[in-house]
Specification:
globular; mainly alpha
C-alpha cells in the first residue's frame, strides 16, 4: 500500500474518531457544564504527566528498534517488561500521595488515575509497536473504536447519574478495549515473541535516554498549560480552555497521520542507505503538514465563537484562546515533521536538544504568562515555545539533509485559504443579514461544508502537485509514491 493511501486511511479513521469525540463532548458539555469538564481534563493532564514516568522514552524506543526489522519480538517483550515495571512504581507513588492528588484536583480521583494510567501505558506500547511494524493504518482504524466506546460509555453513565465518575470510567474502558484489540493484531504480525537478552534492553536504553525528553515535550505541549492553569483559574475556565484545545487539535489530525506514516519509512531508508535518502520524504511531510491547519486558522478566526457556542453559552468566551491555539498547532504541525525526521535517521541526541529547549521555554513562559495574563497567556506560551523548537528542528535537519522547503505549495494553501475565508465571511454576513438560519448548529455546519469544499477545489485548481498527489493515491490511480 502506498504511503499516501496509508496516510489517508490513518487520517480518515482519526477524523471519524474526532467527529465522534466532538459530538460526545458537545453533549457532555451541555449536560454537565464547564466545571466538571475542567475536573476531568485536569485529571487527564495529571495522567499524561505520570505516563512520562511510566514510559521514560521507551515507547518511542520500541517503535524505533522494531522499525529496523531485526529481532522485533525480543524488543517488544523487553519494552513491555520495562514499562510494566515503571507502572508499578508510579501506582505506588499515587497511593502514597493520594491525599495531595485529590486536593489538587478537587475530587477523589486517585483510583481512577491508576486505572487510566494503566490503560494509557498499555495503549502507548501497543500503538508504538504497530507504528514500528508499519501498521499505522491499523492503529488509525482502532481510534474510532476507542473514542466510540469511550463516548458511548461516558454518555450512558452520565444518563445513569454518574456525572464526573462516568467520564473517568468510560475513558478507561475505551482505551482498554483498544489495547486488547491492538494486542491481538500485534501478536498476529510479530514474527515471534522471544526472550530478550541484555543487549536488547541496552539498545532500548541507548535510544530512550534521549527520547524520554520527547515524551516530556509532548506532554508539555498538550497539558502543561492546563496543569499551570489549575493553580490560577477556576475549573470552569479550564473546561472552556480544554474544549478550545480539542477543537484546535482536530485540525492537526492529518499532520499527525503524515508523521506516523512516514516515520517507519524514514527509519528503514536511513538504516539501509543514509540520512540523505529521506530528503524527498522530508519535503513531502512539510508540503502537507499544514494542509488542514492553514485553512483551519482562517476558519477558526471567522467561526471560532460560533463553533464554541455549540458546547454551551459559557464557551464562546474562549474564542481568542482558540485562534492562538490553532496557531500553536500549525507551528507544531511543521515542527512535528522535522522532529520525526531526526528520530527516523537515528539522531535522538538532536531531538533531545530540541525537546530540551521546548521544555525550558514552555515551563518558563507558562508560569510567567499565565500569572500575568491568565488563560490567554497559557495559549501564547504554547505557541511561542512551539516556534522556538520549530526553528531549532529546521536548523538541525538542514545541517544533515539537503532538502527544499516547499514554499510554493504552502503559498497555494494560503491562497486557497484566503478564497475560502472570503466565502465563509460572505456566508456569515448573508445568513445574519437575511436571518435565514436562526439555528447556530445548522448555520455552522453548512458554512464549514461550503468553506471546506471551496478550499479543496481552489487548492486543486492552484496546485499541480496537489492534483498529482490526488491522482496517485486514488484507489484507481496509477501506482506511485505519496
Amino acid at each position: 500500500m502506498r504511503l499516501g493511501q496509508i496516510s489517508s486511511i490513518h487520517f480518515v479513521s482519526n477524523l471519524f474518531a474526532s467527529v465522534l469525540g466532538f459530538v460526545a463532548t458537545v453533549y457532555i458539555a451541555r449536560i454537565l457544564g464547564a466545571e466538571p469538564l475542567g475536573t476531568y481534563h485536569l485529571s487527564l493532564g495529571l495522567v499524561s504527566w505520570l505516563s512520562i514516568v511510566g514510559t521514560m522514552g521507551f515507547s518511542e524506543a520500541i517503535s524505533k528498534r522494531i522499525s529496523e526489522g531485526e529481532e522485533q519480538g525480543a524488543y517488544a517483550v523487553a519494552g513491555v517488561s520495562i514499562v510494566a515495571g515503571f507502572f508499578v512504581i508510579v501506582a505506588i507513588f499515587l497511593v502514597v500521595a493520594r491525599e495531595y492528588v485529590n486536593a489538587y484536583v478537587g475530587f477523589s480521583v486517585t483510583g481512577f488515575l491508576i486505572l487510566i494510567l494503566l490503560a494509557v501505558l498499555g495503549f502507548s506500547v501497543v500503538s508504538n509497536i504497530l507504528r514500528g511494524l508499519s501498521l499505522v493504518h491499523i492503529y488509525g482504524i482502532l481510534m474510532p473504536i476507542k473514542v466510540g466506546a469511550r463516548s458511548f460509555l461516558q454518555i450512558l453513565l452520565i444518563i445513569a447519574g454518574f456525572s464526573v465518575t462516568g467520564l473517568f470510567i468510560g475513558h478507561a474502558a475505551g482505551i482498554i478495549l483498544v489495547v486488547v484489540v491492538g494486542s491481538y493484531v500485534v501478536l498476529r504480525n510479530l514474527p515471534t515473541l522471544t526472550r530478550p537478552k541484555r543487549r536488547h534492553f541496552k539498545n532500548l536504553i541507548e535510544f530512550a535516554k534521549y527520547s524520554w525528553l520527547g515524551d516530556i515535550r509532548g506532554r508539555m505541549f498538550n497539558y502543561m498549560d492546563v496543569i499551570i492553569l489549575g493553580f490560577f483559574v477556576s475549573q470552569a475556565l479550564i473546561g472552556i480552555y480544554s474544549v478550545a484545545w480539542s477543537v484546535s487539535q482536530f485540525l492537526a489530525i492529518f499532520s499527525g497521520s503524515i508523521t506516523n506514516t512516514l516515520f517507519p519509512e524514514m527509519s528503514r531508508l536511513s538504516s539501509e542507505e543514509d540520512p540523505s535518502a529521506v530528503s524527498g520524504l522530508v519535503e513531502t511531510s512539510l508540503t502537507y503538514g499544514g494542509l488542514f491547519l492553514i485553512p483551519g486558522l482562517f476558519g477558526g478566526t471567522l467561526l471560532g465563537e460560533r463553533i464554541l457556542r455549540l458546547y454551551g453559552p459559557e464557551f464562546p468566551q474562549g474564542a481568542t484562546v482558540l485562534v492562538i491555539l490553532i496557531i500553536a498547532n500549525l507551528i507544531q504541525g511543521y515542527q512535528q515533521q522535522l522532529l520525526s525526521t531526526l528520530s527516523g535517521i537515528d539522531r535522538p541526541d538532536l531531538t533531545f536538544r530540541v525537546n530540551g529547549a521546548f521544555v525550558v521555554a514552555n515551563l518558563l513562559l507558562n508560569v510567567g504568562l499565565v500569572y500575568l495574563y491568565g488563560w490567554v497567556g497559557a495559549a501564547v506560551a504554547t505557541a511561542i515555545s512551539a516556534g522556538i523548537s520549530y526553528v531549532l528542528s529546521y536548523l538541525y535537519v538542514r545541517s544533515i539533509i539537503d532538502f527544499s522547503f516547499p514554499s510554493a505549495e504552502i503559498a497555494y494553501q494560503v491562497g486557497a485559504s484566503i478564497i475560502m475565508g472570503c466565502v465563509v465571511y460572505g456566508g456569515i454576513r448573508f445568513g445574519e443579514e437575511f436571518m435565514l438560519l436562526q439555528n447556530n448548529t445548522i448555520l455552522v455546519t453548512i458554512i464549514i461544508i461550503v468553506g471546506a469544499s471551496t478550499y479543496f477545489v481552489s487548492l486543486t485548481i492552484l496546485s499541480a502537485e496537489f492534483r498529482k498527489t490526488i491522482a496517485r493515491n486514488l484507489p484507481l490511480g496509477s501506482l506511485g509514491s505519496f
